[in-house]
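Consider this pair:
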Amino acid sequence: MKRVVVLGAGESGVGAAILAKKLGMDVFVSDKSVIKEKYLKQLKKEGIAFESGQHTHGLILNANVVVKSPGIPDHIPFIKNIKEAGISIISEIEFAAQHSTAKVIGITGSNGKTTTTMLTHHLLKQAGYNVGIGGNIGESYAEQVANQNFDKYVLELSSFQLDGIELFRPHIAMITNITPDHLDRYEYDFDKYIDSKFRITKNQKASDYLIYDADDPVIVEGIKKHSPKAQLVPFSLQTKQEFGAYVDQKDIVINIRKKELRMSISKLSLQGKHNTKNAMAATLASQLLKARKQTILESLENFEGAEHRLEHVLKVNGVEYINDSKATNVNATFYALECMNNPTVWIVGGVDKGNDYAELYPLVREKVKAIICLGLDNTKIKAAFGSIVDFIEEVESADAAVKIAYKLADKGETVLLSPACASFDLFESYEDRGRKFKDAVRNL
């Protein structure tokens, strides 16, 4: 009997364990941290052996295959020990894909991938397809393979998940953009991070598709370097595409198989240049899968965006409060500030991932009237913006940030939480940070 050891008992790990159990494998789950109650219940219910708060080497090094949580870095000594023992280490994505015949639309990128994944799923579901959504979002892909019968999956894929693939082959791959992010996991080498993103297309064939942003020089160079076998499907705001998507004055134009689909940008439910690109990418995928034009157009108009991504919370005394907690890097915050049309009180900060704030300077000069630092160490933010913005205040809770913002913002202005940093200094996750911000706004 094949022995599968799962490292990490979060959403992906427990999902992989449930699938392994269903396939009749000998499965063991090991988590160095204390396993959360929700996942403990699932493991006990399924009768899966586990350990919490430790890794017992003897119980792990006898595995045929190890399914590793994306949160565990490859460079730690224990992972090296497993590799030296000749044991294959894969991601939950790889493990689930090996046991599923469903078509996969795989979406990666530094920013925009959650919205694009949700939008693509929305378009396909509205078009009547039997389609699941997973990966870095929602319920575990592996658990859905175990317990559902979807014909298609739309998967949001992080670079960490792609690092653990071997044979995984999406029928449609999508790269929304590539900007420096998570460089602490890639030895501060941007090229290694880029290579990681391009793993999404490494197993694709000529019958598959790669949808990508033709305006992104990093992706364009990456395509030259990696020479994908898949058919290239570009989208662009800047240049006309014979096969792909582009903007013609105030319309999106989609050209696939000599069929043109045209839609006014003003009708999109999500506004902003980056969302125009997300809509193009999602529409291209839907068109390639032969969804009806009319259904696509209606679905683009009625889609509601992702929580914690430029999410409108409330208007209080004429001030708009926006939750963009999912902006954990500079590029995501650039998009958010670009969308601001009124003077903005900007809440920023957290765990810096090697950020370079220089690209934000023009937008901050133009749009930001005050900065509230929500983090334990704000030295870098103060140094970056101290000479640009007159008012910078430091706080250590979402509640305090919102109370100060309330005093600073005047009618017709905006309060924007767009941290450009990870959340782990003061919060459990970006979701926790976003929810606490929203609670604080509602309590004003």
